[in-house]
Design goal:
Length: 187
């Protein structure tokens, strides 16, 4: 029997660095909870009619962040179940406020060395298209980690656990917070 939220569908937002596993974990978590899943980057791409990278190159980061704020506002007013955000979604105060007030925020925290291992061949993330992507990840982590922590209701360390382990960790946090019924062991 799939788990159900006790009251209504509660939006869970996953935040974290690029490559932290927000989309992968989000899809599987939504399946486990029998709720919907949305990736805000996909919603943004549908709205702008091109890739984020192309839009970012053409219009710049500020224009991109404006659209991201609109999408977060829209998505947090619709009970979608589980939502994966873009890596920079929490950079704006308004976005952090929306997420903290309207969702339960999980920060998937990954150290820069592990992020680099996961992303070293990625050519789609605009902020990593630099001469030294590892140094960029270290710099981004140092800047963003305190912001992610401030935005989060829950922090999950995700350096090397497998996705099912991460799902179990999140489910445990939801149960401990009283957001899910506690699972009782089979007799």
């Amino acid at each position: 029997m799939p788990l159900r939220f006790e009251k209504a569908i509660i939006v869970l937002a996953l935040v974290g660095m690029p490559g932290s596993g927000k989309s992968t974990v989000g899809r599987q978590l939504a399946r486990k909870l029998s709720v919907g899943f949305v990736d805000t980057d996909q919603v943004i791409e549908m709205r702008i009619g091109c890739s984020i990278r192309a839009f970012f190159d053409r219009e710049g980061e500020t224009a991109f962040r404006d659209i991201e704020t609109q999408v977060l506002d829209d998505m947090t007013q619709t009970p979608c179940g589980v939502m994966a955000t873009g890596g920079g979604a929490v950079l704006r105060d308004a976005n952090r406020d929306l997420l903290r007030q309207r969702t339960h925020v999980f920060y998937l925290r990954v150290q820069p060395d592990e992020l680099y291992r996961r992303l070293r061949h990625d050519t789609q993330r605009p902020l990593l298209q630099v001469d030294d992507p590892k140094a960029k990840l270290v710099n981004l982590f140092e800047q963003r980690d305190p912001i992610y922590q401030a935005a989060a209701h829950f922090v999950i360390e995700t350096s090397r656990p497998r996705v099912p382990t991460m799902i179990t960790m999140i489910m445990s946090q939801l149960e401990l917070a009283g957001l899910l019924p506690m699972e009782t062991p089979a007799a």
